[in-house]
Specification:
The structure is a homodimer of 150-residue chains.
Chain A: E1 11-17, H1 21-32, E2 39-41, H2 45-48, E3 51-52, E4 55-56, E5 61-67, E6 72-78, H3 84-92, E7 95-102, H4 106-115, E8 120-126, E9 129-134, H5 137-140, E10 144-149
Parallel strand pairs in A: 1-6, 7-10
Antiparallel strand pairs in A: 1-7, 2-5, 3-4, 3-8, 5-6, 8-9, 9-10
Chain lengths: 150, 150
């Protein structure tokens, strides 16, 4: 994978945007016969440094994560600030939002995708790592998230 | 997961229906910097025993599989016979079609989902196993495939 546009070997998450994170997490937990996962809230701008379409955004979200053996399901409930989460929910309703790939070297990966014609939609920080949504929907049929855990 | 509606711990595949399987496989292979996978053809009715909406179907597809460490991408090009592949391609164009879960006991899993209000859309056999697409799109936001490998 020396000449890879995106250097990765793992899909970490399949993620959905939803209008009610508790309801979605509960539904999937019942499906798999596991306990309903807790809901967490993404950090404020001061720590998350969220950028949406290249501009700072105050957007935050409520999230729940449900683990299978080899992959995690994520449910994301956007708040009222502008974000790709909110845009997707408004356009598509409760729906699959992205698949997340494990990457190392976030900026290098974003630059590599940019050379492939793929723009960065949203990025931000979280405790122990950072993420970016990239605009792969048209070319690769689904939106990708890059996830870099330190 | 004793009371699971769907007994599984693994997502095996993320699958797309496409109008040109070679083109899709080549695009993803270039993305990940790997060799373009070969295209295979699903079996004829005599071996695949394809059922679409409860009736026998002559539908076949051309497929390519691309492996990452923990998951496989699948690209499916339907033929002209009626199938859920063809219906999805006609309705949504090249798009994500399903995520596939590893299961044991196909009929038991299909029955369990039926009790949850989820119908079986299409099922069939392949060398070494069997699959079923179940109608989870509305309730679980994405279509599921059940995959049972012997």
């Amino acid at each position: 994978m020396k000449d890879a546009v995106l250097k990765t070997n793992r899909v970490l998450q399949i993620a959905f945007v939803v209008s009610d994170v508790e309801k979605a997490a509960e539904k999937y937990a019942r499906l798999f016969g596991v306990e309903t996962p807790p809901v967490t809230v993404s950090g404020p701008y001061e720590s998350a440094r969220t950028e949406y379409l290249g501009k700072p955004s105050m957007a935050r979200c409520r999230m729940a994560f449900l683990d299978l053996d080899n992959i995690q399901f994520e449910f994301i409930e956007p708040d009222g600030y502008e974000s790709d989460w909110k845009k997707s929910l408004e356009e598509n309703g409760d729906s699959l939002h992205h698949i997340a790939f494990e990457v190392k070297g976030m900026q290098e990966q974003i630059d590599s995708l940019a050379q492939d014609g793929i723009g960065c939609l949203q990025r931000g920080e979280y405790p122990g790592g950072r993420y970016a949504f990239v605009d792969t929907g048209e070319k690769y049929m689904v939106k990708f998230e890059l996830l870099e855990n330190d």
